Amino acid sequence: MKMKGKCVFTYQIPYPTAVTMMLRPRRESTQAIFNEGFIIEPTVHFTEFTDSYGNSCQRATLPQGEVKITSQVEANVLETPPLPNPLPPFVPIEELPDEAMLYVLPSRYCQSDLYEIHQLASQIVGNSTPGYEQVEAIRKWVHQNIYYQYGVTNATTTALDLVYNRTGVCRDFTHLVISLCRSLNIPARMTVGYLDKLEIMDLHAWVEAFLGDQWYPIDAVQEFTHGYRIEIGHGRDAADVAMVTQFGSMQLQSLDVETELLEEDPSAQPAQ
C-alpha cells in the first residue's frame, strides 16, 4: 500500500537558535520511499548527518520570528502483520546479534534495571512462554491498565513514573513496554513515525522487540498492533528520537500531522 505522511511544525523564536531535527524517513527494506520533501520557511541553510542509530538528521540555525518546518513523505509500506504462527521465541543473551545488545540495557527513560519494573514484568507475564507470548502479555497489560491522556506527562516522565501514575501518551506507553521487556532480557527499542490508525492524528511512537531473528512492531496504544506505518527513526528511548531538539528558547505554536493511504503505483521508482 502507498502511504503519505506530512507534519508541519510552527515555532515562534525570540532570537536565532541552533536545532537538530530528525524528520526525514529511514531507508528500510520494509518501506520504499518514492517522494519526499523537507522545507524550512523562511529558507535557511541546513546540513544533514546520520546518527549512531542510522537515523537521517538535520542541523540548522533558525532565525528570529515565526519559523515553519514541513516534512512529507510517500512510501510503499506493508500492513502490520497479525500475530505470527508459530510465535517467535526468546533469544538468549549469548545468541543475540551485536546490534541488539544495546536495546537490552536500561536507558534514560526506560529504567529496566529497577526492582519495581522487574517485579511488575514478572507479575504480568506469569507462566507465559518466553518470547512473543511474554511481549504480547506486556502489551495487553499496558493497553488495558494505562489511561491515554494528553497534558499529564512531560519531557521528564519515565517508565517508573508511569508505573505509579498510570496515565500518559504514546511516548509513555512505549517507554513502559520497553522497560518491562528489557527487564526480561528481551531487546526493545522506541520507533517513531506515522500510523494511519490513530483516532487523534499525531506523530506516533511504538515499540519494536527483537525475537527469533527479527524486530517485531508492538503497539500498546492500540487494542491490537495493526495498521500501516512509516518509520522516521528508532533508538533506545525518546532521548534518541526527538523530532526537534532546540539549543535555546523556542515556542512551539502548533504541530499539524496528516496521513493518507493512496493507491500503490507499481511503475513508481523509489527515491534515492
From TrEMBL:
Top-level division of the source organism's lineage: Bacteria
Pfam families on file: Transglut_core
InterPro entries reported for this sequence: Papain-like_cys_pep_sf (IPR038765), Transglutaminase-like (IPR002931)
Transglutaminase-like domain span: 162-222
Name the record gives this protein: Transglutaminase family protein
